[in-house]
Amino acid sequence: MKSRVILIVSLSLIVLAAANLSHSHAQKANEPAAGSGAPPLTNPLKVALLKWYKANTVPTTFATGTNPEGVAFDGENIWVANFGAGSVTKLCASDGALLGTFKVGGAPFGVTFDGADIWVSDIGNSVVKLRASNGAVLGTFTVGAAPVWMTFDGANIWVPVPQTQGNGAVVKLRASDGKNLGQSPVGSGPIAAAFDGQSVWVTNYGSNNVTKVRASDGAVLGTFAVGSNPLGIAFDGTSMWVVNRGDDTVTKLRASDGAVLGTFPVTSFSPYGVAFDGADIWVSGALAITELRASDGATIGSFSERSAINGTGLAFDGAHVWVAAYDFNILAKM
């Protein structure tokens, strides 16, 4: 299997490490097909409740560019950054139809929607702003080496940026015109960010903690220990969920004060991305997608079909969870 490239940030440089993983796909022969080309529906109750993404345990898949990474939903469509192709792909969320592929730089990694436009981080040193309606490039903004997974606070784009020496920073760009409004210091190897309504949280892959920054003025409000090599991060309305890639866990932090509310094992193995669907937490990883109940962290599902192998970014579109499968160049719709 093609080696999967994973971004790892150290104090002085970014290392692209390979993780070779294999999985044998075993289709259940006794499951009936559901509809024309649809995956097997193994939970009729979920079908009755129109919770399709929990009914389809074998996801529907759609082709992307090479090595898909970050995924975002713009209200109608799904966008995915193709790390190995220097492009982003736009798919219709309702049926997965390809709406366009747009060149955005050398190695696009994260993708974020600001309510009107799409922002794509390029591992070089910049972020690119695209008009969501047609993919036209509206601007390219230099932020520093290796910008990664970003977040939007309602007015600004926050971009985690590692430094060549010492700790990293998170850069604040005004979404309307891309103006650099300053940066805040964070930990070593910042790699992903999420917004809780008032503050921006940044995972520090190299220092095993997260930094909380006040969005209004960039003041650092605290740094909180989590597990080993924190990567993806998501907000569930009251708590922050942090994926700990180095120890196969996720940590739940109370957003108000950073208190640890629990650390939960996941079956994903080398977990990567995380998304909230309004009730549950979804975690991608090398071997599976894990579904956790947000209220107590209990594992309520694990999906290990081909489309779940070496999963990277995830997004929720209001009805379905989408996950990028890095090695297979596909998006899985669950």
Write down the CATH topology of the domain at 234-334: Neuraminidase
**Regarding CATH, which class of the domain at 234-334?**
Mainly Beta
Radius of gyration: 18 Å
Largest sheet: 4 strands, antiparallel
Q: What's the architecture of the domain at 234-334 in CATH terms?
A: 6 Propeller
Number of helices: 2
What does this structure look like?
It is a single chain. This protein is an all-beta fold. The chain has a domain at 234-334: Neuraminidase. It is built from 2 helices and 30 strands. It has a 4-stranded antiparallel sheet, with no helix packed on it. A hairpin with a 5-residue loop joins strand 26 (289-293) and strand 27. Mean pLDDT is 85; it is low at 1-42 and 44-53.
Task: Provide a compact summary of the structure.
With 334 residues, the protein is mainly beta.
Question: Which helices and strands appear, and what pairs or packs with what?
Answer:
Elements: E1 4-9, E2 14-19, H1 44-48, H2 52-55, E3 60-63, E4 68-73, E5 77-82, E6 87-92, E7 98-103, E8 108-113, E9 117-122, E10 126-131, E11 137-142, E12 151-152, E13 156-161, E14 169-174, E15 180-185, E16 190-195, E17 199-204, E18 209-214, E19 220-225, E20 230-235, E21 239-244, E22 249-254, E23 260-265, E24 274-276, E25 280-283, E26 289-293, E27 299-303, E28 311-316, E29 321-325, E30 330-333
Antiparallel strand pairs: 1-2, 3-30, 4-5, 5-6, 6-7, 8-9, 9-10, 10-11, 12-13, 13-14, 14-15, 16-17, 17-18, 18-19, 20-21, 21-22, 22-23, 24-25, 25-26, 26-27, 28-29, 29-30
